[in-house]
Amino acid sequence: MNVNQSAPPVPPFGQSQPIYPGYHQSSYGGQPGSAVPPTPYGAYNGPVPGYQQTHPQGVSRAPPSSGAPPVSTAQAPCGQAAYGQFGQGDIQNGPSSTVQMQRLPGSQQFGSPLAPVVSQPAVLQPYGPPPTSAQVTAQLAGMQLSGAVAPAPPPSGLGYGPPTSLASASGSFPNSGPYGSYPQGQASPLSQAQGHPGVQPPLRSAPPLASSFTPPASGGPRMPSMTGPLPPGQGFGGPPVSQPNHVSSPPVQALPPGTQMTGPPVPPPPMHSPQQPGYQLQQNGSFGPAGGPQPSYGGPYPGAPNFGSQPGPPQPLPPKRLDPDAIPSPIQVIEDDRNNRGSEPFVTGVRGQVPPLVTTNFLVKDQGNASPRYIRCTSYNIPCTSDMAKQAQVPLAAVIKPLARLPPEEASPYVVDHGESGPLRCNRCKAYMCPFMQFVEGGRRFQCCFCSCVNDVPPQYFQHLDHTGKRVDAYDRPELSLGSYEFLATVDYCKNNKFPSPPAFIFMIDVSYNAIRTGLVRLLCEELKSLLDYLPREGGAEESAIRVGFVTYNKVLHFYNVKSSLAQPQMMVVSDVADMFVPLLDGFLVNVNESQAVITSLLDQIPEMFADTRETETVFAPVIQAGMEALKAAECAGKLFLFHTSLPVAEAPGRLKNRDDRKLINTDKEKTLFQPQTGAYQTLAKDCVAQGCCVDLFLFPNQYVDVATLSVVPQLTGGSVYKYACFQVENDQERFLSDLRRDIQKVVGFDAVMRVRTSTGIRAVDFFGAFYMSNTTDVELAGLDGDKTVTVEFKHDDRLNEESGAVLQCALLYTSCAGQRRLRIHNLALNCCTQLADLYRNCETDTLINYMAKFAYRGVLNSPVKTVRDTLITQCAQILACYRKNCASPSSAGQLILPECMKLLPVYLNCVLKSDVLQPGAEVTTDDRAYVRQLVTSMDVAETNVFFYPRLLPLTKSPIESTSEPPAVRASEERLSNGDIYLLENGLNLFLWVGASVQQGVVQSLFNVSSFTQITSGLGVLPVLDNPLSKKVRGLIASLRAQRMRYMKLIVVKQEDKLEMLFKHFLVEDKSLSGGASYVDFLCHMHKEIRQLLS
Ligand SMILES: [Zn+2]
């Protein structure tokens, strides 16, 4: 490996490289590559030991009972009596069709009647009484603003809220957790269909989108607040705020103590009238009209204390009300950014530019820095010294998505081929040639922008400089003019100095009783017959170079020989799972086209062969082991697609026991719920990574399967985990097949290594994502797809320089789908500052939240959840207090002043704090938490944004003919109008909420029934009707699904229906049933924390 070698001279590539059109293809070029050579760099202290960072977590919701898990071995069929119908008679699983196939020894062996165990939790339990609306609409009256009042301090215990209705709730949503599947049939006992209960929370139909808060982006007079310093005097209650530091975007919001916002709506530049003492937010001076009285928002703090550590004795101060319309609105911020920045392309030529928000659609023009689609930072202006950084507490991190997919309008990175000499690098730090390298001495040498080493330019690469010192061919070479590009790697970058073979996909299918019973095996085999024609391929290649292989298993493994010369597939059984080996080499991994007939035959036979199986036990680790050994034998990298249904209790390595115990929640042992129960899977994962074996796991559990343990290998190998709780073909087929198709077709880089280099002064110290690290600098990914991100945190190790700024270079070495070895390079230059105000003006809150969520989600592996929550709150308070102290102008302590670009930090942080991982509701299973934890670990900024703060779209507000997406409203119950219909999505879940007073015509148009009461609650599919509204809504649903990585299953929820409780879980500005604070309450709490820090 040539990490250390300097690049040999290469023929100049005078011309620009051809662009590979299309999505990922660019990444595949033509040559073989190599593995990342380990470079001799000092270790960074950072990374957490490989394993911890990566724990993924499970997916689905277990069946209802939240109580003790059912007997360990017995799998509770979701909702159905399990094996009842099963006769004992037929025990043979052997293939029946071909003579050549051997009988499964295993099956015979286990023919003994396994007593089908069945006692499972009944699935459908009646829904408990929904929480009374009173509960939800707690009144503000109780609220106290921190300024002066301490919110009723809840016991700092964990925030489990009012236990009240929870208990019943838990039992009630059997299959419907947010992460699980929500089988309709079982859903709710629709008794409550008859909606309009007399008592309805006050509904507002047209949410006042906090107009006053932020100035209209375009159109309309612009409020002073967003752009310039705050005009003094505009402020509202409180002393005028002017912020000298905010040169360009002074943001400020102040909560004048003692002011109350509940008065009647007031016109904009409002005022605070004496009678309305309360807190008013001041946003750069401009205030919006105070909304009308809002009876229902967030709950008052009263019993819900979940704020981490909070002392505050309740103080009986006069209740203050904070107008929700006066506090920073995510919707408004998103809308403003779209209006301000969505029309112009984002040109990357300027150092330290903050890109548009992830929620804004914009095009990117690469002019020397990587597109924000590849890298987003928490701040684009880094403090020059570590002291400043410590003072501000703003994490310095980059969220990197090396193989991000691009919109069709943007070209994939050019591929540069420097021939045998390979890419040109700095001799000392090994950074790759990039636009920031400085050519000197007439072009004969170049100075490295990372380590300052002066290197000779190889003769072949020599070029003259122009009068500005720039190479005259700079614009002809991607590596001298663009932020992102690829190099073809030489054999030096390959494992064992050998160009890699094309990768392979191995399908490993659980054929135990549960998998057969649900129809999964038949569905999957049928789908694979056609899906195999769509394996990823290189650019214009006619067929995919990827070979495929098949294994089925229960407590033994069955390998299949599908060589094209065979008339029928042959099965080989391996029952010694303790010492796994691959019984055949020739004929196991084959070309899909050549072996089409045999493969089709096999896929036809598998469901038949095991149709009568009674085997309920499965193994898991040996299956992965077998796939990895098969790849090793074939000397290639690849991916295993595992379709698995149950806790692997069969006697074998990696055997697991049911250890689910909800009683551990809120105890110091809660972390064990997130940790794997055995270290065996980490060891296995390490072997997989060494082989370039990535594992994608599809789970179909009926009950607890220990996602925390099963997802270890996928997580450490860069794979994905999907979970379909209580899978039933009728209800879940579409979702599963959609995910499967996308997963199999997506382009993947195999056997990858990523290294992030930085200019002197900062260095990468910590990493978050789905990967493995065997040292402190190299992120190893058996596989990396276009959805996965790696979040990297930086720390100072020296002083930075304002003039030179800071440079990051992410280099990803990987093998393409066709077996070509490549290097993808992303460069990004950032500004450095000596004034804190500059830092606070150039932060990106969405990215901060992405980092903080990942940090917290990793923290729960080692610390009590409460500690993790407290840490987040403290850090957030420190960030905001530092701003207040150093950047904001002096003002009353009662004012809450937030930096403009961080004004959403409190609301978003609160969403993270009350997420299922950090504050689970009673209906959230241990597997769900593990699943979500693992999912979030690899999410990009756009995904975490919508995941933590869901989008709520009113459907009948905008004109029917409007083709654009309706503007979203804030995620709060008070924004729901009972005369409207809304879609809510968070990237994983999709709800259609129907108000009880929706016009009959609308009901008819969408559901084809005559009244609200006739709508089926829990419905998963809208009827296909030929009218504009139906088409529009179905079109919108399709469009939302297309934007997300995973198929979102629809659930129709009727107002006042019991399922509504599940829906309300996503109204994140409200107080949650699990005790999570409302936005208003949290803001007050944060204000109090800040004041404490300042005093
Ligand atoms: Zn260097």
UniProtKB/TrEMBL annotation:
Annotated SUPFAM superfamilies: beta-sandwich domain of Sec23/24, C-terminal, gelsolin-like domain of Sec23/24, Helical domain of Sec23/24, vWA-like, Zn-finger domain of Sec23/24
Residue ranges occupied by any Sec23/Sec24 trunk domain in the UniProt entry: 500-744
Family as reported in the entry's similarity comment: Belongs to the SEC23/SEC24 family. SEC24 subfamily.
Subcellular locations according to the entry: Cytoplasm, Cytosol; Cytoplasmic vesicle, COPII-coated vesicle membrane; Endoplasmic reticulum membrane
Signal peptide from the UniProt entry: none
Polar residues: compositionally biased ranges: 14-29, 90-111, 165-175, 183-194
Stated name of the protein: Protein transport protein Sec24C
Predominant location: cytoplasm
Keyword vocabulary terms for this entry: Cytoplasm, Cytoplasmic vesicle, Endoplasmic reticulum, ER-Golgi transport, Membrane, Metal-binding, Phosphoprotein, Protein transport, Transport, Zinc
A GO term from the CC aspect: cytosol
GO molecular function: SNARE binding; zinc ion binding
Coiled coil ranges: none
Limits of the Gelsolin-like domain: 964-1036
UniProt-listed Gene3D superfamilies: beta-sandwich domain of Sec23/24, Sec23/Sec24 helical domain, Severin, von Willebrand factor, type A domain, Zn-finger domain of Sec23/24
Residue ranges of the region described as Disordered: 1-114, 147-328
Biased composition, class Low complexity, residue ranges: 201-212
GO BP term (any one): COPII-coated vesicle cargo loading
